[in-house]
Write a structure and sequence with these properties.
mainly alpha, transmembrane, 89 residues, transmembrane helix, 2 domains, 88% helix, 5 helices
Length: 89
């Protein structure tokens, strides 16, 4: 494994408190998170016939925003730190 991969893995592990903060910002409680996961695996037409289409859309959106936010944090930190470390080489 190259150093970039190790660096990214280290950033993913170090950022667990940041992920927790983002989690608390997006989801009201663990049940809200569980519901978002459930809706993300439920096809839209099933949610539509159950009368929960918009709840499905909102839950899926929140889960996607959580995942995207966590990935963006790691990406931005990686880009910033690689620029800083690049100045020392």
């Amino acid at each position: 494994m190259d150093w970039n991969g190790i660096f990214i893995i280290a950033l993913v592990i170090i950022n667990f408190p940041v992920y927790r903060f983002i989690y608390k910002m997006i989801f009201s409680d663990p049940e809200d998170f569980d519901e978002s996961i459930k809706f993300s695996f439920t096809p839209d037409f099933i949610s539509f016939f159950r009368g929960k289409y918009w709840q499905d859309k909102w839950g899926t959106f929140k889960l996607r925003m959580y995942i995207l936010s966590c990935l963006v944090v790691v990406l931005l930190e990686y880009m910033l730190l690689s620029q800083v470390i690049g100045y020392f080489h």
